[in-house]
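Researcher: Going back to the complex we discussed earlier. I've cleaned up the inputs and rechecked each line, so this should be the final set. Can you rerun the prediction on the complete assembly and write out the structure?
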Amino acid sequence: MNREDLFDRHLRGELNEDESAELKHLLLHDAAAGRAFVEHVHEVNLMVRVGSQLQSASPAQNVVPLAVPLASSGKSFRRWWQAAALAACLLGLAIIGLTLNRSPSRPTAPTVYVSGNGMQVTRDGALMDGDMIEVRPDDLIATSTNEIAVIAYENESTRLELFPGTVVLCGDVSAGKRFELRRGGLQARVAPQAPGQSMLITTPHAQATVIGTEFVVRADERATKLDVFQGKVELACRSNAKKVTVSAGYWASSTSSGTSEAKPLCKCSKCRGTNEPSNCPNLKKKNEK
Amino acid sequence: MVELDRQTESQRALSAEDLLRAAFKYQDALTSYAYALLQDWPLAQDAVQETFIVLQKKHAQFRPGANVFTWARQMVRFEALNLLRARGRESCVIDEQLFALVDAQFDEHFDADALARMEQQKAALQHCMTRLERGSLDLLLGFYKDRLSCDQLAGARRRSVNAIRLSLSRIRGKLRDCMRHRLALAEVKP
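Model: Rerun complete. Updated structure for the full complex:
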């Protein structure tokens, strides 16, 4: 068996006893093989990471369009209110526009923008240029594999930090804060929002409604995990619309089959961030009580 | 790169955000390390994500002047062991000797030069992978990420096992050639 196949079999967890012995012997006695092993692992890792990003960025079958509503009750009533709210907004904008036109020329600044090294913003199939880009509906933001990007709002403290390797599709920013997290993760600090203007983050499995809080949400092909540090977030499973309210200090996850109950975030040192109560004696005792 | 970080980090205590930002720069390297230890790419991703959460919580314990990469790598090692134990993989018992040997390779070969070289490789790979056909990309990810066997891939694509093996080898070869070409071009450019 050639060296590359041996390294591949290790990465796939397929080594038998003889092959395992062969790999150990190589790593122990051949420095060049050791270096080749490290380089091979890194190359495969990058290939998978970049490949996953490319796969996610292209239209995926597992992603439901952002506009799909979770529940259908009171749809027409809500639509009426949306139309009324839109009309009121347009009227408000017209008044603001008239007022601004009277004053001397003032630069119009973007209300929502994204910045970061190596990020890619795709709009209507074209790649946008610049380190700081105003976000528009349907913009697809992809962070590079080792840099973060920040989505910030100009007139409020709301801020979303997109982790490396994240792909986010922006919804209609004027109608609230809507984002579709296709893969990766983001940490958000959301300023208290006006009623009806909650931030909505949709993933392939769930939809998180945020009122004003600080949380981390991560999504991959298997599940969506949500850790809440401050405030409350409502997590709804997209397949059965089951909702769970996750308060500060709690976490929940959602898969294609449903959403878990909210569980306390583990804070003890033995947990090491796994949120796994079995690793955390204090939490286990608390749960048992 | 690591040296440079050490110099700047030694000047002041880092906030949780700064520390996380510094650690994010090594996400690829940390994932490779976790991947080699865990032999499962999605699990490696989990280990690194958990490391970042722990790192943020424990940022106060970071000594100014210490190396962020080394600190984060130790945490990844911890997380990897944790995950292996938590996942009940001990049914096939962790091969501690192999685990230690893999760990030692990364300790020895993951130096500043290697990290810088890998950054260049990544840029080249990103360019080359966008040129792959969707089918080739799916095949690669099926094999490495989803850990499908050649038999499973052959069944799903109605092709022979040998044809799948050959395709995988050709795709890898194509990518390598493209990367080599791209890296050579980068060296020539002023």
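Model: Worth noting: The CA atoms of residues 191 and 212 of chain A lie 5 Å apart.
Researcher: Good, that matches what I expected from the previous run.
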